[in-house]
Design goal:
Helix content is 35%, strand content 15%. By secondary structure, it is α+β, with helices and mostly antiparallel strands. The strands form five sheets. Strands 6, 7, 8, 9, 10 and 11 form a six-stranded antiparallel β-sheet that branches. Strands 5-4-12 form a three-stranded antiparallel β-sheet. Strand 6 and strand 7 form a beta hairpin. Helix 4 crosses helix 6.
Length: 544
């Protein structure tokens, strides 16, 4: 058990292991701590060095065994994990490598090269993100069909909708992402934990070989602008969180060892995570351990280079060239006569009223304007190919889908549905474990956790109305509201309660009709007596 920090004199002295009073030093900025030194294998300092080295270790995503990389490969022969992820992220944010040109033309064509960049990579990512909405979490102790009340509270405090989208974006772009549960401070009034999305370029974990969905250890790097220190959070799998930092004037980008780091504070115990390996971090991994468009970088480069060809032709070959065939200076050469400098641009001026006098037999020649139609069709074909290979709906990539048949549109829509289901199945186990850890840190451990995903497909109002009619008696009212009308489980529950209130209110406000009155009619005969058998007819044997 750790003791509180002794802040007397503005310094922090650590009195519990692994922070003994020895080896305490003060850095230039007034921060005091013990140097991060590994005492034994698998301790916090050892894991920090081991995981930090993985940032700059050789990435073998494209390698087979130990075969050397082909000299024609896109990436350098020796590429690190972070270099590969930075490369993929550049395509996503619209700053991919410029098309190759000879060195002597790079300066002249630099502005043209940048204008030739078309950002199609995010299209296939956004098509998945729009269909990967997590609407809630349901547990065995759920309060209602909308999901667990504690899960709703964690979502609201964490901004989980945005954090989930950020984590999935990292996964779809760089093939890997991390999500972390941050426990509340011990003295906080609200003990609701937070769930955050972590950039894989700054966070890394070591999977458990016996359970790939669980991490044995994790490391997160960050930079504190106020303290001007690089901060590292280490989770060595012992249920503790260690924090270390080192001084720096800016973000260092790459850390390869624990050298230069000092412990910031005593470790924070998280005994609630003992059943989950003691690491409050989960890893989300994309299919084939690759980004969504990582296999199609050559196609994206081909699109940009074709656009560059179009811009170059438009800029430098858009004007027609004119020439004159004939001898306008004469055939006789007199060496003794002075050479006359003639400005042919003024002579052949295109001003109104100008008259050109030419020798007999002279002819003018004019070049034809460049035809850009084949290049435009080539760009369009490459874009359609990119949509096909990534199973992205064509209307998201290009607004001109007139050439797409109805059957082709249906198949493209079916492809994105299958793709979304596959990605949901891949991240679901990690998300279940993430929420189990969040419930444990909130003081309400729960074992049965179910992810409530939103609808994959969207329908028009006419289609929704038709589906409601066809599914009546087959789907429950809640299923109709959630799956067809695209309500969240919470909105569906509120709608059901509001319908009950409307029925009660209608019954109270409705005025019942007055009771019906049956009139007794007399059937008067011609003699003025009541008709026999009528209600007013005299009863035989009685005096009227």
């Amino acid at each position: 058990m750790t003791t509180p920090l002794d802040t007397s004199g503005g310094a922090s002295l650590y009195t519990d292991p692994p922070f003994g009073p020895s080896d305490v030093r003060e850095n230039g900025d007034g921060w005091t701590g013990r140097p991060v030194v590994s005492a034994e294998r698998l301790d916090a300092a050892w894991w920090m060095t081991y995981l930090a080295n993985k940032f700059v270790a050789r990435d073998r995503t494209y390698d087979f065994a130990d075969d050397p990389v082909s000299p024609y490969a896109r990436l350098p022969i020796y590429r690190t994990r972070r270099l590969r992820m930075d490369w993929l992220w550049r395509y996503f944010i619209g700053r991919p490598p410029l098309p190759h040109l000879n060195a002597e033309y790079e300066e002249a064509f630099h502005h043209v090269l940048r204008k030739a960049n078309a950002v199609y990579a995010p299209m296939c990512v956004d098509a998945l993100l729009d269909r990967m909405t997590l609407t809630g979490v349901r547990t065995s102790a759920a309060d209602g069909p909308e999901g667990d009340a504690m899960a709703q509270s964690i979502m609201q405090v964490s901004g989980f909708a945005a954090a989930m989208k950020d984590a999935l974006t990292y996964m779809f772009v760089m093939s890997e992402a991390y999500m972390m549960v941050v426990p509340a401070m011990p003295d906080a009034i609200d003990q609701t934990p937070l769930i955050t999305a972590e950039d894989p370029r700054l966070t890394i974990g070591e999977p458990d070989p016996m359970n790939p969905n669980r991490l044995r250890a994790a490391l997160k790097l960050g930079y504190d602008d106020v303290r001007q220190r690089v901060v590292a959070y280490i989770y060595p799998g012992d249920g503790m969180r260690y924090q270390a930092s080192q001084s720096g004037t800016g973000w260092i980008g790459i850390t390869v060892s624990s050298s230069g780091f000092v412990w910031d504070c005593p470790p924070v115990a998280m005994p609630q995570l003992e059943a989950f390996g003691g690491v409050p971090v989960v890893r989300l991994q994309n299919a084939h351990q690759m980004g969504e468009y990582e296999k199609h970088l050559d196609l994206l480069d081909r699109i940009n280079e074709t656009i560059l060809d179009r811009l170059a032709i438009t800029k430098y070959q858009s004007f027609r060239q004119r020439g004159l065939i004939g001898d306008i200076e004469g055939d006789e050469d007199d060496e003794d006569s002075p050479v006359e400098q003639i400005d042919w641009n003024n002579i052949f001026s295109a001003s109104p009223g100008s008259l050109w006098r030419l020798p007999a037999g002279s002819q003018f020649w004019e070049s034809a304007q460049a035809d850009l139609t084949p290049i435009m069709n080539a760009i369009k074909a490459d874009v359609m190919e990119f949509a096909a290979v990534t199973r992205t709906p064509l209307h998201l990539v290009t607004p001109d889908v007139a050439t797409q048949s109805a059957e082709g549109a249906s198949l493209m829509r079916e492809g994105i549905v299958f793709k979304v289901r596959d990605r949901r199945d891949r991240v679901n186990p990690a998300l279940v474990q993430l929420w189990q850890m969040a419930f444990a840190l909130a003081g309400e451990p729960k074992t049965s956790v179910q992810m409530l995903w939103g609808p994959i497909e969207t329908y028009s109002l006419a289609e929704k109305g038709q589906l409601l009619q066809q599914s009546r008696g087959i789907l429950s009212r809640e299923r109709q509201l959630v799956d067809i009308l695209e309500m969240t489980p919470a909105e569906a529950a509120d709608n059901a309660q509001e319908l009950v209130q409307d029925q009660i209110l209608d019954s109270q406000l409705t005025v019942p009709p007055p009771p019906s009155v049956t009139r007794l009619t007399e059937q008067i005969t011609d003699h003025g007596s009541s008709a026999p058998g009528s209600a007013l007819a005299p009863t035989p044997g009685k005096i009227p």
